[in-house]
Amino acid sequence: MGPEVRESIVKGVQLPVATTKINMVDLPLGATEDRVCGTIDIEKALTEGVKAFEPGLLAKANRGILYVDEVNLLDDHLVDVLLDSAASGWNTVEREGISISHPARFILIGSGNPEEGELRPQLLDRFGMHAQVGTVRDAELRVKIVEERARFDKNPKEFRVSYEAEQDKLQEQITSARSGLSSVQIDQDLKVKISRVCSELNVDGLRGDIVTNRAAKALAALKGRDNVTPEDIATVIPNCLRHRLRKDPLESIDSGLLVIEKFYEIFS
Amino acid sequence: MGPEVRESIVKGVQLPVATTKINMVDLPLGATEDRVCGTIDIEKALTEGVKAFEPGLLAKANRGILYVDEVNLLDDHLVDVLLDSAASGWNTVEREGISISHPARFILIGSGNPEEGELRPQLLDRFGMHAQVGTVRDAELRVKIVEERARFDKNPKEFRVSYEAEQDKLQEQITSARSGLSSVQIDQDLKVKISRVCSELNVDGLRGDIVTNRAAKALAALKGRDNVTPEDIATVIPNCLRHRLRKDPLESIDSGLLVIEKFYEIFS
Amino acid sequence: MGPEVRESIVKGVQLPVATTKINMVDLPLGATEDRVCGTIDIEKALTEGVKAFEPGLLAKANRGILYVDEVNLLDDHLVDVLLDSAASGWNTVEREGISISHPARFILIGSGNPEEGELRPQLLDRFGMHAQVGTVRDAELRVKIVEERARFDKNPKEFRVSYEAEQDKLQEQITSARSGLSSVQIDQDLKVKISRVCSELNVDGLRGDIVTNRAAKALAALKGRDNVTPEDIATVIPNCLRHRLRKDPLESIDSGLLVIEKFYEIFS
Amino acid sequence: MGPEVRESIVKGVQLPVATTKINMVDLPLGATEDRVCGTIDIEKALTEGVKAFEPGLLAKANRGILYVDEVNLLDDHLVDVLLDSAASGWNTVEREGISISHPARFILIGSGNPEEGELRPQLLDRFGMHAQVGTVRDAELRVKIVEERARFDKNPKEFRVSYEAEQDKLQEQITSARSGLSSVQIDQDLKVKISRVCSELNVDGLRGDIVTNRAAKALAALKGRDNVTPEDIATVIPNCLRHRLRKDPLESIDSGLLVIEKFYEIFS
Amino acid sequence: MGPEVRESIVKGVQLPVATTKINMVDLPLGATEDRVCGTIDIEKALTEGVKAFEPGLLAKANRGILYVDEVNLLDDHLVDVLLDSAASGWNTVEREGISISHPARFILIGSGNPEEGELRPQLLDRFGMHAQVGTVRDAELRVKIVEERARFDKNPKEFRVSYEAEQDKLQEQITSARSGLSSVQIDQDLKVKISRVCSELNVDGLRGDIVTNRAAKALAALKGRDNVTPEDIATVIPNCLRHRLRKDPLESIDSGLLVIEKFYEIFS
Amino acid sequence: MGPEVRESIVKGVQLPVATTKINMVDLPLGATEDRVCGTIDIEKALTEGVKAFEPGLLAKANRGILYVDEVNLLDDHLVDVLLDSAASGWNTVEREGISISHPARFILIGSGNPEEGELRPQLLDRFGMHAQVGTVRDAELRVKIVEERARFDKNPKEFRVSYEAEQDKLQEQITSARSGLSSVQIDQDLKVKISRVCSELNVDGLRGDIVTNRAAKALAALKGRDNVTPEDIATVIPNCLRHRLRKDPLESIDSGLLVIEKFYEIFS
């Protein structure tokens, strides 16, 4: 994935293609920047005297998913690198007199406990969607989850088999949604209303508008429709905008509620 | 314990088995991450020019017990590594262009003086159980302990022999409990009540529910029963939940008392 | 671009000339000073035993444009190096017993979010012009931008083609303005008024005066005129002086408004 | 003192014995952990390619006395290492893939000025006894000390000779006390009273009880008796418990006085 | 400029002399101490196995001028080194077992913006004179400077030629002042009055007195006189003493005014 | 000055003696601990493969004077090393598996500006005497010093010659005082009074008493007497005790005045 391939792509050369499963790469807490971005192969450098590039996790995650647990505890600079790559689709390494770029198109998923520390506002803004996960309060449901977990611990294989059909159905639904996505339409009127929500909530930049449009389309495609409905937008807009609102330090209610309030004000 | 063994396990290859005593590994204060997780063997790297993995304490503790004194003074990152391994059963090392995983299934036991510093709430939450140890106030009992200690200092061998029968009985009891554990049952009604205690105490996540279920079953097995009683739960639940409650900085009573209060409110 | 070339330039030797496109060099976040200024070539040093200079991004940006995103997050010292080179047109590296200078004439463009941190006042003062970029509040316009972006994402090539004519026209306009710039005149009376604005706004130093004169001339040239009008000055003066005013911490209005107010007071 | 010796000891092999003077090792301020615990012999590693252990001050102090001036200014971690070794009698080094243990049985004596910084409470607690040293206020006595010092400075040899008889007598007394120590008895009633003092002073753990018992026996042995008297206990108990009391920040009286007060309350 | 030359100087050996232009050495922001003081030549050390000294900027500035922009942002330790060398006329390097001294007689000129940070009082005190530079407020004059700058930017060569006569006259004046300096006299009465000003302003040490005497003589010499007048003293004394006064944090007026006030009080 | 010499001294071997001038070693600001204490000779280690000791400034200062300017800005640890060596007369280096001791008997003189930072109380206490240096306020005297300095700058050689007789006389006086010092007596009554001053001023330890006795004897010897008078004590006691008094943060008068007050109270 060195410069030669890039040149070939630029020249339009037809390269041989191999089909593989989508990678799910897990970034272990404490991985170094070297391991993430790739580095010089010391062994080759010492034995053969050449500067060889050893690809990192970003290269491995290319065309797949990169998952980071406790993303809020990662070094800001490393998060920056991840978001840069996720946004541009290329990882560029500039060090020790070497400049290498390779494609790094992946979906970045981060999770974390906000009580342990928050991301910088600007970094938060660069995440497309932001979901809040709470704890189930219903005791019966809790017991059910505890039992599922015990069932998994007893026999992981059997557990997976019992959910196979459900998982296959979901996978099919996603695959079909992916192929139908490009033909999903969104009315001009709805687009303007989305932008009005963003503008009246004082969302900086246009990432909020763009992401809401995309997410609404994706949801419509998942439901098998080729037209976005206001309900689609209502479902996705809190997750698309919640983290882009300026925090009022005196207010403790979830920003998502402010978004949905403004949605109803403008859409009805 | 390199990737080949993992592959063999995945392929279902039957590997030769050796029976050994359970290891009790002591993590000395000030051990480096290299020593804990394993590192590259410098000698081999320099003399043979290959990157060989030198296993660390986690590998040594595999299928045994890892004991950490003053766990609250350990670097947060190192505790994280320990808990990750303890939870997943695998230790993954990603550095200098090497990615190695080996099984690291061990029971982690930590001790410490909370007045010297606390663990981060999220780390505390990942410990299964949390016991509080106080000092004996009864003078006669203190004298007895002092005498036992003096007896040990005088002749450690003789001291150990005098307790051998008692120790053997305890070992037998544990072994028998281990084999009986899988057949211990817990009533649906008790499970729901456990989850109600957790839910009403605002315990985040479901680790509290899972651990209480497991600990109650283990206690029943130790007592030779195959059914969990409310008394079993009453015995273990303060240790399972005490450290998962949000601290109220104005309140100084032990969280365990709050747990037991809630237990009696729900179970009677 | 070592000392020999400098000597040749000093001696007036006629060097062979090659015409190339203007470089647009992007400084990636986290680039090291070595990579920016150039460093010793380790490979050559080890294998051939000589100290060879490996040029950095400043050398690459020579006679072009150097763009730095999030310039306010760059290490102050690195910004200093950039501004020194941008001002003097030479990059001088003094380290490990080596002193090398090479021409580094480039236009420096930085962008950043001031809420994430400000540049030191003295550094700010060394930027020629300072533009403030806000978010469009008009929903219809937002939708239009979102649609343009979607059109680009769908087919970047087609998108670029659709703007080619417009871009070519702009390029021509700039080229013609460049050649006409040296004949643009500015009346003595206007010059004095510019300096009165600077003086009455308590702008330290004379960079503000010099830059306003140059920017007004450049604007006149872009509009195809050879005489600066008060309107030209009104257009450029807020961007030339906004960042050179002492901040009054109690006042939250944009400094650009203070500049334009003073402009009208003095020019009418 | 490598693993082979340890194995031999475990196997009960009879090793040859050499009689030497007791070592008095002085830990110089600023000694590194390497120098204290021992490290890899770099010379051997480089020239012979083997990992050889080079013993440190702990090995040198084995079966002797280790003296640390300004122990309160030592790095907490280093004090920890010293106390661990002093307590267990073994020094274990775990680094760079090496694990070495050697016997390190020594008496640790530390001194320091508490106004320059205090030891962590938990470390303080691990010192057996804690003596407070004040300055003589009587002018005549001060002059006598000054004169002794001047006499020493003038002729150190002569000074030492003049005290030789006194020193010899003291040494004999200690040797005889050592051999008589194991036959010294302490009444059950006195033991309970010691533990009552500890318990009522809220001393955490049982180190206070154990040390007081041992110190009282040692004092009786030094006085040539084979029975501990309440006076023996009164003499040693302030030094054994003074540093184990929780500090009341509002109270400035010496903790030793609180100990002696409680002693008289319980023993009479 | 190694020890051999020093020895020769001590022995009075007549060394060959070469006449060169006075060096004007510019200390680039971010130069390392190695580069300033000189260091070991790594190349020679590795290839020839000897410790060779590679002279730094101080050696280059010998018998010339060393200019440091933003001297207030330099590391205090580096400023210290500069002032030590400037004061003693020798640069002594003590490191890695080498001790080398070479003459480093230069005039040190520093500039900086005090709003960006101040020098330590003691460092300030070691600068001979301290001038304050303000911004011209007169608009006509500002325009003239802007025009001069534009003229320079258009044709630097021509600009320099136009000032050549003026520059030559100034150079001549300085050369003649230098040769006349040793015969300039200052009346005993004036000397006492200078010391009274210093004493009554509570200037610590005698650097203020010495520098004022020298500066007044230099000014008289520049004006072609061989006698210092009170006017000479009035001209130089604010710059010689301004930075040696203790700052009263509540007073914001320039210390130079306090100096001139005291001057008039004592001299009239 | 390695261990062999030490052994020879211990064995009483008669070593050849060379007479040299007393060294005056200047510790340059920023000298490393390696350079002060001595270190391993890298050159020898690399070329000959042996660990050779390269002596530092302490070895050079042996039997001479070590002068440290700005001693209050030195790293506390380095000052500690200096005082340890000055007190014990030996420099012990313990690092990288080497333990070397060599004699380091020198007189340590430090100077500094207390406004720039104070020494730790315990370090201050280890300096024998502490003199305060102020600025001359008398203008005539200031002029005289300025003139002397100008005379030195003009012709250093001539200046030194003009003071030679005076210097020689002083040197003779010191030499004669040195030889007479051992026969100087101090009355028992005066000794007790000195210790009473120390005791009533709450001086910790006995260094104050010892130093005052020594300094008074030295002064008597310098004056050619063989008996200490109360006037001798009055002269030296403020310098011997001033820095050993606990600072009362609310009091700003010089501690030396408190000492002299107490002196008159007790001696009359």
TrEMBL record, chains A, B, C, D, E, F:
<dbReference type="InterPro" id="IPR041628">
    <property type="entry name" value="ChlI/MoxR_AAA_lid"/>
</dbReference>
<comment type="pathway">
    <text>Porphyrin-containing compound metabolism; chlorophyll biosynthesis.</text>
</comment>
<dbReference type="GO" id="GO:0009570">
    <property type="term" value="C:chloroplast stroma"/>
</dbReference>
<dbReference type="Pfam" id="PF17863">
    <property type="entry name" value="AAA_lid_2"/>
</dbReference>
<dbReference type="Pfam" id="PF01078">
    <property type="entry name" value="Mg_chelatase"/>
</dbReference>
<comment type="subunit">
    <text>The magnesium chelatase complex is a heterotrimer consisting of subunits CHLI, CHLD and CHLH.</text>
</comment>
<protein>
    <recommendedName>
        <fullName>magnesium chelatase</fullName>
        <ecNumber>6.6.1.1</ecNumber>
    </recommendedName>
</protein>
<dbReference type="GO" id="GO:0005524">
    <property type="term" value="F:ATP binding"/>
</dbReference>
<comment type="similarity">
    <text>Belongs to the Mg-chelatase subunits D/I family.</text>
</comment>
<feature type="domain" description="ChlI/MoxR AAA lid">
    <location>
        <begin position="194"/>
        <end position="252"/>
    </location>
</feature>
<dbReference type="GO" id="GO:0015995">
    <property type="term" value="P:chlorophyll biosynthetic process"/>
</dbReference>
<dbReference type="InterPro" id="IPR045006">
    <property type="entry name" value="CHLI-like"/>
</dbReference>
<dbReference type="InterPro" id="IPR000523">
    <property type="entry name" value="Mg_chelatse_chII-like_cat_dom"/>
</dbReference>
<feature type="domain" description="Magnesium chelatase ChlI-like catalytic">
    <location>
        <begin position="44"/>
        <end position="114"/>
    </location>
</feature>
<dbReference type="GO" id="GO:0016851">
    <property type="term" value="F:magnesium chelatase activity"/>
</dbReference>
<dbReference type="InterPro" id="IPR027417">
    <property type="entry name" value="P-loop_NTPase"/>
</dbReference>
<keyword id="KW-0067">ATP-binding</keyword>
<keyword id="KW-0547">Nucleotide-binding</keyword>
